Amino acid sequence: MSAANAAAAETRAPETWSRRREWVSYGRRNPTLIAGLTIITVIVVFGLVAPFIIDQDATRTTAFSKDLSPSLDHPLGTDSFGRDMLALIIVGTPQTVKIGLIAGFMALIIGSALGFIQGFYRGPIGTSVRGVTDITLTIPALLILITVASQVRQVTVESMAIIIALLAWPGTTRAIGSQVLSMRERAFVPIARFNGMSGMEIIFKELMPNMLPYLGASFVAAVSTAILFAIGLEVLGLGPQTTNTLGMTIYWSQLHSAVIRGLWWWWLSPMVVIVLLFIGLFLISHGLDELANPRLRRRV
Amino acid sequence: MSLGYLLRRVGMFLLVVWVAASINFVIPRLARGDPIQAQFAQLETLGIRTSGMDQVVAAYKKRLGLDRPMVEQYFSYLWNVARFDFGPSITYFPADIGRLIAQRLPWTIGLLTASTIIAFIVGNLLGALLGWPGSSRWVKWLVPILMPLSAIPYYLLGLILIFTFAFSLKLFPLGGAYSTGAKIELAPAFTLDILYHSILPALSIVLSVTGFWMLGMRGMMVTNMGEDYMIMAEAKGLSPMRIFLRYAMRNAMLPQVTGLALTFGGIIAGSVLVEVIFDYPGMGWILWYAIRATDYFLIQGIVFVLVVSVALAMLVLDLLYPFVDRRIVYVRR
C-alpha cells in the first residue's frame, strides 16, 4: 500500500513539474495573455492593499490647499476641492474595478444563458431570443442607460453596476450564440444525443467545457464594456455623486475646466489608470482568443 | 432586392423605434409614478426654478393627460413621438424640444459622418496593407501604435489632444464648433473656421476607431490570401496593384461593411461624450446640459432621436449592401 503510494508520488512529482514547465512555455508563446494578466493583477492588488496604507482623510474636501501641482507631499497634486489626487486614485480604482466586475459577471450570466439558448435551440424559443437580442443590439445601450440613470435619484456603485448589467449582455449573447451555433454542428453533439443526453445535459456537459476560453474572453469583454459604460455615465454626471470612482474624478475635473486651467494632474492621473485597465483587459481577451483558437496563432 | 426583404427590414426598423419609444414611456412611470409632480418637486429641492414654472406644469399636465387611463396616455404619447413632438423644454421654456434638437442634430451628424468615413477608409487601407505580403516593413509599426489607442475610450483621447494641441501648443481652439462672434453664414471663411474647430474632435474619434477597422481588415486579408481566386489572379499575370485592390481588398471589405452597421450605436454613444469634452454644440452637448438641469423631457427627446438616427443609419446601410456585394440576392427562404 505504502509502496504503491510512494510509487504514485514518485510518478506524480515529475508530472507536476512537467506541467509547470508546460505553463511557462505556453506563457512564452502567448505573451499577450501574460502581459494583460500582469497589468490587471498589479492594478487589482494595488487596489486591494493600498487603501489600508493611505490616510482616508486625504480624500475629504478641503483636506489640503487646492490646485497644488505634484510635489513630494502630494505626488499627484491636489484638485480644486483640496483633495490629494494619489489618495483619490487609490480609493477610486477598486470602486471602478468593482463596478466592472459586478456588472461584467451579471452580464456574462445573462448573456451566456441567452447565447446558449439562441445558438442551441431551433424553433420558436431560439428565434424569439435572437429577435430580442437583435433589437437590443440596435439600440445603443449607453443611451438607454442615460434614460434609466437620470431617473434614479441616488445612484450608488452597486445600483449602477446592476443597471449596466441589464444592458451590457447582448454583446456576450451574440459572441456565445455564434460559437454555440458552429459547435452544435460538430460530431460530438449528435453522438451525445444518441447516447440519450437531453439538451440541457449537452449544453452543460459537452458544450460548456469546450466553450471555457470563449466564456473567459466574453467575461473580460463584458467587464471592459461595463467599465466603459460606467465611465461614460460618470463623465455625463450620472454616476455615484458621493463615491470617488475614477470616472467621477474625471467628471469633477471636467466640471471645473481642469484641462484649460492647466491642472493636468487632475484628469491625467485617473486617465492613466483607466487606460491601463482597458489595455490590460484588451490584451487578456486577445490572449484568450489565441488560447481558444490556436489556428489563428501568429498567422501574420 | 425583393419587396419582402425590404418590408421585413423596414418592419425591423419600426420595431426598434417602437421599443425605444416604449422604454421612454415606461421607465419614468416605473421609477416615480406621476412623471410630472415628482420631477418638478425634485427640481424645486435642487433649487432650480425657472420663471413660469406653473405654466410648464400646466402645459405638461395637459399634454400627458394623467387623469386619462394608461392605455390612452400611451397611445397619445406614441402619436406625439411619431411626429417628433416632445413638448416644451423645462429649462428653455417655452422653446420646443423638437426644435432644440433639430438645431443641434446637424453638428453631430456632420462630425460623426466625416470622422466615421475617414476612420473606415484609413483603417481598412492600413489593415489591407498589413495583411498583404508585399507591403513594406514600416506598416508593421502601426500595430503597436494604433492598438493601444483603440483600447482607450475616445473622449479620454480627446482630453489628451486638447491638452497637447490646444492648451500647450495652442495650435487648435480649446473647444466649440466655430469662433465666438463668428457670423453663421455660408461663406468660405466660416466653413474653414468650422473645419478648423472640428479637427481635434474628429481626430479623437478617428485615432481610436481606425485601429478597430485595421485589425478586422488584416484578419480578413489573411484569410483571403489562400483563396483560389488569388492564385488564379496571380497566374493570369495581373499587376500586383490590381490584385491588391480588386481581388484581395474588394472581397475582404464585405464583412467590414456589415461591421460598420453594427458599430454605429457605439460610435454615436461615444461621440456624445466627445462633444462634452470639446464643448461641441451637438446632441451630446445639449444632452449634458439637460442632465445638469435635470430636464427629463429633453433627455428623453434627445435619447429617442439618437436611437432613431442609429436605427435609420443601419437600415440605409442594410438596403445598400446588395449594391456592394452583388452576390447577395435577397429571397424569401
Terminal Cα separation of chain A, in Å?
54 Å
Rounded radius of gyration of chain A (Å)? 24 Å
Structural shape of chain A: globular
* Structure class of chain B: mainly alpha
Unreliable stretches of chain B, pLDDT < 50, 5 or more residues?
A: none
Number of helices in the DSSP assignment of chain A: 10
Oligomer category? heterodimer
The backbone outline of chain B, from C-alpha atoms, is globular
Mean pLDDT over the full residue set of chain A: 82
Distance between the termini of chain B: 14 Å
Q: What is the mean predicted local confidence, pLDDT of chain B?
A: 81
The percent range for strand residues of chain B is under 5%
The number of strands of chain A is 0
Q: How many strand units of chain B?
A: 0
Give the radius of gyration of chain B.
Answer: 24 Å
Outline the biggest β-sheet of chain B.
Answer: none
Low-confidence stretches of chain A: 6-10
Helical coverage of chain A, percent range:
over 70%
Element string of chain B (H = helix, E = strand): HHHHHHHHHHHH
Query: Could you describe the largest sheet of chain A, including whether it forms a barrel?
Result: none
How many helices of chain B? The count is 12
Structural notes for this entry:
The complex is a heterodimer of chains A (300) and B (333). Chain A has 300 residues and is mostly helical. Chain A contains ten helices and no strands. Chain A has helices at 2-29, 31-53, 85-120, 124-138, 141-151, 157-183, 188-194, 199-235, 246-255, 264-292. In chain A, helix 3 runs parallel beside helix 6 (157-183) and helix 5 runs antiparallel to helix 6 (157-183). The radius of gyration of chain A is 24 Å and the shape is globular. Mean pLDDT of chain A is 82; it is low at 6-10. Chain B has helices at residues 3-32, 37-45, 53-64, 70-82, 97-131, 142-151, 154-168, 188-225, 228-235, 240-278, 283-292, 296-324. Chain B is globular. Chain B starts with a helix and ends in a 9-residue tail after the last helix. At the A-B interface, helix 4, helix 5, helix 8 and helix 10 of A face helix 1, helix 6, helix 7, helix 10 and helix 11 of B.
